[in-house]
Write a structure and sequence with these properties.
Oligomer: heterodimer
Distance between the termini of chain B: 57 Å
Number of helices of chain A: 15
Distance between the termini of chain A: 77 Å
Radius of gyration of chain B: 21 Å
Largest sheet of chain A: 2 strands, antiparallel
Order of helices and strands of chain B: HHHHHHHHHHHHEEHH
Strand order of the largest sheet of chain A: 1-2
Structural class of chain A: mainly alpha
Largest sheet of chain B: 2 strands, antiparallel
Structural class of chain B: mainly alpha
Number of strands of chain B: 2
Helix content of chain A: over 70%
């Protein structure tokens, strides 16, 4: 029988894993939308507007999923982890509060204007709303990652009467691991959205969509991925070095290193064995782990045995890390090969379109794998060195947690299915829609044969001309 | 508390309970009307165009409306962490059910607009069901809160009564919103709905007001403490007259040129404001009735100060762009379309 602690952990993992899918996508998709809208404003090319129309709907759906699953998160602290707020509420509370104040209202309100206001506000206000939504999603990431990083590497606090008090808010917010985690996550979001946009657009093209909007979106997604993927390798390395400095036991588990080694090898594959405290079936590259982590071929990497039992479980970290890095390499390859094909032939061959479709959710998988590594890697601590996960758990009976967990899981499975089903329906619907301008629109020509909102700039410029 | 030197630890909790109260009140009004619209959704096949208009009328707002709940709970968590844990562990199961309801109605709102035609009705049902679930559980939780988380059967009965009362109140404000935002046949239906919901809400408010001072002796003393009683009795009196005025007004609607279509909403606002004032007056400065007051539950002053500085800058900005958004979508919802 599972106890309340384990059930609460499973429930939190389920809720946060479900939740993070949607913000990961919307953080960068907000900037995609702004890009589409600004390109349209600048060039007047209606294809940008059509790409915007399609993706703003995806954004709205994804955002709604993020909002409702996020509300669940804000209640979880009280229902399942009362010890967390009682011990570190003085830090966690204000950071969460700033997230609500600076981000949630901003994105929710201006999204309403983006979705329903295109006939009620001037085009410029519409673009401004898109900017506010993109800023809102990014502010939200800023505060929540600041709090998460503080839980990993606490700073700027003191403990009085057994409760944590802030002494220096700048040190709390910009704690040692925050800048690295923040940039790593923003890039992850960029890659997730890039492959999502590219994948769904490739799906439309494969289903016989002759229009230009999916081709433009596919190109935007692949070019962005081709730029962000190598950047992510670089930033990921910096983040790893930061973790190595502050949480060496996490890195030891990620690398599967049991004994402290000089010139540690990189384990490409292995089966870690926690009972025997060794690995089976290792495939290694000599000295590479030391080279990556210390930038010296013979640098010392502390092993798990240095930490006694006070280290996280090894298997989830070891495999999670490899899944994340493997997917990252795959994303880099697909993006570069895709861009090469776009450059040479202006289109993708069938097999590459299919590969891109298969990669649609690759960003989600890599992000989840990465978060499992860093969160499981903090165990047994909830807040490193201050509060263990067990100390924070709720006194509620296991049966109650079991019931709520079951409810959430059933709802989440249905919703994920509905989400993907709806995306597919939307994509197929958009394939069938006949539009005037499947040919190259004349850049100088009139836009009068286009539907309503696309006329707006022409009208505006006409007014401008008269004035 | 010495009178000469009010320290930050004395006044900060008061400021924060005020902010939290504001967030809860704004939430009850704003999400109240959009939950109400969900509860009132007519489900016959021929009602589909009316369902579209009703949902369009709340379309641009519901996301932001729900954010006030996050702010309210957030402020409880920020300012009174001990109370936050105490309240939410006591209300564990109703909270979980409410969250499921919020999830279902939030997503069905978006799914219905994009799903294949054959699934639209299913999502509309989910929207209505989710809205009902949220209203009922919120009312139940209010009842439990007033009864000090008592699990005896009279307390349960009272909480169930409160669940129906709050649901009726949300339907009341939702109906009034529709009178303001719609026209023609739908508006006439909304007027009928509002009258019915108003009567049910009236019964609920009277019942809660009568039971509350009876079971909580502290509340009784507070309300009937002479000479303050002369002043505080204004609250139920204003509330009563707002109900009556609305009943009379609703009989005469719709008027020529749609005059006074916004007035029912103002009347319901007044009802909500008075009910909230009454509850706040009953319990302040207790945050968990009978167990914790705001000073015992408060977070550290330096944390509250840090948030207060931000809130003073950001909250006015939020209010400004919220008002801007309501101005953009001013008028009837008939031509509102999802783009």
């Amino acid at each position: 029988m599972l106890d309340t602690l384990m059930l609460s952990r499973i429930q939190f993992a389920a809720n946060v894993s479900f939740h993070i899918l949607f913000p990961t996508l919307t953080i960068a998709l907000g900037w995609f939308l702004l890009f589409f809208k600004v390109r349209y404003d600048k060039t007047g090319n209606p294809v940008w507007m059509r790409a915007y129309r399609f993706w703003v709907k995806v954004f709205a759906l994804t955002f709604a999923m993020g909002v409702v699953s996020g509300i669940t998160m804000s209640f979880q602290f009280g229902t399942n982890w009362p010890g967390f707020m009682e011990k570190v509420g003085n830090i966690a509370g204000p950071l969460l509060g700033y997230e609500v104040l600076t981000a949630f209202f901003l994105e929710a309100t201006f999204l309403g204007i983006m979705l329903f206001g295109s006939k009620r506000v001037p085009s410029k206000v519409h673009t401004f709303s898109a900017l506010m939504v993109a800023l809102g999603t990014t502010f939200s990431a800023f505060w929540i990652l600041s709090l998460n990083s503080w839980m990993q590497t606490p700073a700027g606090y003191e403990i009085r009467d057994g409760v944590v008090h802030a002494t220096d808010w700048m040190k709390v917010i910009f704690n040692p691991s925050f800048p690295y985690r923040m940039i790593h996550m923003l890039l992850a979001s960029g890659l997730t959205a890039a492959f999502f946009v590219a994948g769904l657009s490739a799906y439309r093209i494969l289903k016989g969509d002759p229009k230009q909007a999916p081709r433009l979106a596919l190109k935007t997604g692949l070019v962005l991925a081709a730029i962000l993927a190598p950047l992510q390798v670089f930033v990921g390395d910096l983040h790893g070095l930061n973790t190595f400095e502050h949480q060496p036991q996490k890195v030891a588990a990620m690398e599967g290193i049991w004994e402290t080694e000089q010139g540690a090898a990189l384990r490409l594959f292995a089966i870690p064995d926690e009972q025997a405290r060794t690995n089976h079936l290792e495939i290694t590259i000599p000295k590479l782990a030391s080279l990556i982590l210390t930038h010296h071929a013979d640098g010392e990497v502390p092993g798990l045995n240095e930490f006694g039992d006070d280290h996280p479980p090894v298997k989830p970290l070891f495999y999670g890390f490899r899944i994340m890095v493997g997917l990252g390499v795959l994303m880099l390859l697909v993006a570069w090969i895709g861009c090469y094909n776009l450059y040479r032939r202006d289109q993708l061959p069938g097999w590459l379109l299919k590969t891109t479709v298969a990669m649609t959710a690759s960003g989600w998988l890599a992000t989840l794998a990465g978060w499992y590594v860093t969160e499981v890697g903090r165990q047994p601590w909830l807040v490193t060195g201050i509060l263990t996960t067990a100390e924070a758990a709720t006194p509620v009976a296991p049966a109650n947690v079991g019931l709520s967990l079951t409810l959430y899981l059933v709802v989440y499975v249905i919703l994920l299915w509905a989400y993907f089903h709806t995306l597919r329906v939307m994509a197929l619907k958009s394939v069938k829609v006949e539009e005037f301008e499947t040919k190259e629109p004349n850049p100088e020509g009139s836009l009068t044969n286009l539907s309503d909102s696309k006329q707006q700039p022409t009208l505006e410029s006409a007014h401008g001309g008269k004035a | 508390m010495s009178t000469s030197a009010m320290t930050a630890a004395d006044w900060l909790p008061v400021v924060f309970i005020g902010l939290m109260g504001l967030a809860v009140l704004v939430y009850a009004i704003l999400d109240g009307y959009d939950l109400g619209v969900g509860i009132l959704l007519p489900m016959r096949a021929q009602d589909e165009p009316q369902r579209d208009t009703m949902i369009a009328s709340i379309g641009p707002f519901w996301d932001a409306n729900e954010t006030w709940l996050v702010l309210g709970v957030g402020l409880l968590l920020i300012a009174f962490p001990t109370a936050h844990s105490l309240v939410l562990t006591n209300l564990y199961i109703p909270t979980a059910i409410m969250l499921i309801g919020l999830i279902l109605r939030g997503v069905s709102f978006d799914f219905r607009a994009k799903a294949a035609v054959d699934h639209k009705l299913a999502w509309d049902r989910t929207f209505k069901g989710g809205s009902l679930l949220v209203s009922l559980t919120q009312g139940y939780m209010l009842g439990q809160y007033v009864m000090g988380f008592d699990s005896s059967w009279p307390a349960q009965l009272f909480s169930i009564l409160s669940a129906f009362g709050v649901t009726a109140a949300y339907a009341y404000i939702g109906g009034a919103w529709l009178i303001m935002k719609t026209e023609g046949e739908l508006q006439e239906r909304a007027i009928r709905w509002t009258r019915r919901a108003g009567r049910a809400a009236f019964v609920g408010v009277v019942a809660v007001s009568a039971v509350n001072p009876m079971v909580n002796p502290g509340v009784f003393d507070r309300w009937f403490d002479f000479p303050l009683v002369m002043f505080v009795l204004l609250v139920p009196i204003i509330c009563f007259f707002a109900f009556i005025a609305n009943e009379i007004l609703l009989r005469r609607l719709p008027k020529v040129d749609d005059r006074h279509c916004w007035l029912p909403f103002i009347n319901v606002l007044l009802v909500f404001l008075m009910c909230f004032t009454g509850l706040a007056f009953s319990f302040y400065p207790e945050i968990v009735p009978g167990e914790l007051n705001i000073w015992q539950a408060a977070a550290a002053p330096e944390s509250l100060m840090f948030v207060l500085v931000g809130a003073l800058i950001v909250v006015p900005v939020i209010l400004i762009y919220t008002i801007f958004s309501y101005r953009v979508f001013h008028g009837k919802a008939t031509d509102l379309q999802y783009h």
